[in-house]
Specification:
The protein is α/β, with parallel strands linked by helices and 314 residues long. It folds into two domains: 2-112, 2-Layer Sandwich (Nucleotidyltransferase, domain 5); 126-304, Nucleotidyltransferase, domain 5 (2-Layer Sandwich). Helices cover 46% and strands 20% of the residues. The chain has 13 helices and eleven strands. It has helices at 43-46, 51-71, 82-86, 90-101, 115-127, 166-173, 181-201, 215-224, 232-235, 242-254, 257-261, 274-292, 304-313, and strands at residues 3-9, 13-21, 27-36, 75-80, 111-112, 141-146, 151-155, 158-162, 209-213, 238-241, 296-299. The strands form two sheets. Strands 8-7-6-9-11-10 form a six-stranded mixed β-sheet, with helices on both faces. It has a five-stranded mixed β-sheet with strand order 3-2-1-4-5, with helices on both faces. A hairpin with a 3-residue loop joins strand 1 (3-9) and strand 2. Helix 5 crosses helix 13 (304-313) and helix 6 (166-173) packs across helix 7. The protein is globular, with a radius of gyration of 18 Å.
């Protein structure tokens, strides 16, 4: 049995999955964890990582490395996504990851993956345990990974990484609490502009089921389910009709920060950016309804981490 460790470092969070090969080409989860580190803080404006953002990430990764060592991880892969593709001082980040990851497997360093590979890893992880039965909506699936700096849209044979996510959009346009009408208009226009090439590249009209992954969408699911606190088992494979999805999104967008922070399932690190994520979600829902007649979102707790880990055992 092989035990693997997968680390995903995005614009807003760093996450860890430790899993065992199950002997049938799949995984048995051992541990899953997430820390909001905001690595992409200010990158959209400055083009560089802030020193305090690198330090937050270093602290979190050092804890993950010690966890993986204690758990007996034999293979490890760490990928870095949108913010790291954009940062001019990313060599500082890579030097830090090389020093820490080398404690598990000498020579290991974080990899900057392309938006295309990010999308395909997310697709593999998201649909790995979904069947083609009516219970899960049935394929073809279109998967979206709504991150901090980018949003991936992918089907089996096509993928696109759009430069818009909850952090990037918030920093670009949403400066007031709650946002003004002018800010919402600017943000909506920005989302439409950034998503347009994705819908030109990916034939979403052929999709039957929309599967969404990552923190914005899982949080929306938790709120739709009325959970007093975050519960991944109840969220995984949950379904949100578009009527409910749009209602929740607009409530979050118009809600002041204090009220958002008081919501039971809301992670503190998402409070300031969930409105931006909700605006991207609304745009995605409108396009999937118009182009494919889809009327609900299936939320998956398996995502790019699972795709990374599967690649280590297959």
């Amino acid at each position: 049995m092989t035990r693997v460790g997968a680390v995903d470092c995005g614009t807003n969070s760093i996450r860890l999955l430790i899993a065992d090969e199950d002997g049938e080409g799949g995984l048995t989860e051992v541990l899953r964890d997430m820390v909001i580190v905001r690595l992409g803080q200010g990158v959209n404006a400055t083009g560089r990582f802030a020193p305090e953002a690198i330090e937050r990430t270093r602290i979190a990764l050092e804890r993950y490395v010690e966890t993986m060592r204690s758990a007996g991880v034999q293979r490890v892969r760490m990928v870095a996504t949108s913010a790291t593709r954009d940062a001019g001082n990313r060599d500082e980040f890579f030097a830090m990851t090389a020093e820490l990851l080398g404690r598990i497997v000498p020579g290991t360093v974080a990899e900057v993956i392309s938006g295309d590979e990010e999308a395909r890893l997310s697709f593999r992880g998201a649909v790995g345990d979904l069947s083609t039965s009516s219970r899960d909506g049935g394929g073809p699936f279109v998967v979206t990974d709504l991150g901090g700096g980018s949003t991936e849209i992918v089907m089996h044979d096509a993928a696109y990484s759009a430069d818009v996510g909850c952090v990037r959009l918030t920093e670009h346009a949403l400066n007031s609490d709650p946002p003004t009408d002018a800010e919402l208009a600017e943000a909506t226009s920005f989302v439409a502009e950034r998503l347009a090439p994705a819908f030109a590249a990916v034939p979403v009209s052929e999709a039957r089921t929309w599967v969404g992954v990552a923190g914005t969408l899982t949080t929306l699911s938790a709120l739709n389910l009325g959970l007093p606190e975050y519960d991944s088992e109840k969220i995984h494979r949950s379904r949100i009709p578009f009527s409910d999805l749009k209602r929740i999104c607009w409530e979050l967008i118009r809600m002041p920060r204090e009220q958002r922070a008081a919501l039971g399932p809301m992670h503190p690190g998402r409070v300031d950016v969930i409105g931006g994520g909700a605006l991207v979600t609304l745009a995605l829902a409108d396009e999937f309804a118009r182009r494919a007649g889809i009327d609900e979102l299936v939320v998956s707790e398996t995502d790019i981490l699972d795709g990374i880990a599967l690649g280590l055992v297959n």
